[in-house]
Design goal:
Blueprint: H1 6-58, H2 67-74, E1 81-84, E2 98-99, H3 109-126, E3 130-134, E4 138-145, H4 149-215, H5 220-246, E5 254-257, H6 258-270, E6 279-286, E7 291-294, H7 296-313, E8 318-327, E9 331-338, H8 366-377, E10 381-388, E11 392-400
Helix pairs in contact: 1-4, 4-5, 6-7, 7-8
């Protein structure tokens, strides 16, 4: 059996990975650009602060009002700030010379000096200090400053975000791979059981006919009838072999009378319905000349699956399965209606999922295969048109018209 979609799956993964990388790069670039702009604004504030001090230092007016400087520039500053002389010496007795810096209260004078010296070195490495001069030549004060807490958080935020996203992707990939492996396992197990089931029905029938042949071997008329049934079952085995050989390859579609194909399938079931212990009517209605582009063998497989599901859904001893064919402008629609127990609304999307089954002995592959045959091989559609618990179900198939 051919397994398709490998290279395409790899290409999709590469595309998704590329998109993820581009998003990560874009996030980092945007954040760093924002950080740079905020740093520039903080530098402008420091420069304005420096110019204010410089103005006060150079003014000859002793009555100059510096209230504006303190209220509108100094107080709003929320980033670390250290004022020193030209040689980076700090006046440790002035509280205003060291601002917005967390200091350990247990430090002695020498330890505090070392702490401030190291802090100034770190600040100067990140941002060049701004000098306050007197008469444009004498350096009165150097203003050393660092980044605010907001900038620090903003700078590291994208990395934290990317780590969380990476963990989420890894966990999601592990979960998705686990689900995919489970689904593939269900498909292979279901395919094996479906194969056994497909071959089991005609083989059981053949065994029954052989027993009848042994009993009635002296009666030519009965032997002839039995041989015809044996021939039908052998032909059925032949068709099953053909069906499985076409899975994974592109089947040939031919112009086919849909009603005739439905009659062929129902005739096979009608001869074997008494063995189920149920009295179920199989009825076909609609346009006798409806023609669609189909592969007869695979299309019959789909109808068989729908009939089998309908038979399983009929809990009573009596029931009815109706098939209606209508020829539209571009499509031929086939509706399969049963009088079974119906499907709950929340379960309708699950019926075509591999491995899903409401039957204790089911393996949930028949409808999944049917969907693949109709939509993947025939370019049509198959879906649950309507279903109500206790009122039955209608499946609709849309096929390309001849």
């Amino acid at each position: 059996m051919k397994m398709s979609g490998g290279p395409a799956s790899v290409n999709i993964k590469i595309i998704l990975l590329t998109i993820a990388v581009l998003i990560a790069i874009g996030t980092l670039y945007y954040t760093q650009t924002l950080v740079s702009k905020l740093q520039e604004k903080e530098r402008q504030i420091v420069e304005l602060y420096a110019k204010g001090i410089e103005y006060v230092a150079n003014t000859t007016n002793p009555d100059v009002d510096i209230t504006f400087l303190f209220d509108n520039i100094i107080k709003p500053i929320d980033f670390p700030l250290v004022l020193s002389d030209a040689e980076n010496n700090v006046n440790f007795y002035s509280r205003t010379d060291v601002r917005n810096v967390q200091i350990d209260s247990t430090l002695n004078a020498e330890q505090f000096k070392v702490f401030i010296t190291d802090l100034i070195s770190e600040m100067d490495a990140a941002h060049p200090p701004i000098e306050v001069t007197y008469e444009d030549s004498i350096v009165l004060t150097k203003i050393h400053y660092g980044d605010s807490e907001h900038i620090k958080q903003l700078r590291y935020y994208p990395y934290i975000q990317l780590i969380i996203a990476a963990l989420f992707i890894v966990l999601g990939y592990i979960g998705f791979s686990s689900i995919k492996r489970s689904e593939q396992s269900n498909i292979w197990v279901g395919m094996a059981k479906e194969t056994a089931h497909q071959f089991g029905t005609p083989i059981s029938s053949l065994m029954g006919w052989l027993e009848m042949l042994k009993i009635n071997y002296k009666e030519p008329d009965k032997v002839l009838d039995i041989s015809e049934e044996i021939s039908n079952d052998v032909e059925k085995l032949n068709r099953i072999t053909y069906r499985f050989s076409k899975i994974g390859s592109k089947p040939e579609l031919t112009k086919t009378n849909v009603i005739e194909e439905l009659k062929s399938v129902t005739a096979y079931f009608e001869r074997r319905l008494p063995q189920t212990g149920k009295s179920v009517e199989l009825k076909i209605f609609g346009d006798e000349n409806a023609c669609a582009q189909i592969n007869p063998e695979l299309f019959e497989w789909v109808i068989e699956n729908l009939i089998k599901n309908a038979l399983d859904a009929i809990d009573e001893d009596t029931g009815r399965i109706e098939m209606t064919v209508n020829e539209l402008k571009k499509h031929v629609e086939v509706e399969v209606k049963d009088s079974g127990k119906g499907i709950e609304i929340k379960r309708r999307k699950d019926v075509f999922r591999p491995g899903y089954s409401t039957k204790k002995r089911g393996w949930g592959l028949g409808l999944s295969l049917s969907k693949r045959i109709i939509e993947g091989y025939h370019g049509g559609k198959i879906f649950v048109k309507s279903s109500m618990p206790g009122e039955g179900t209608i499946f609709k198939i849309l096929l390309k018209r001849c």
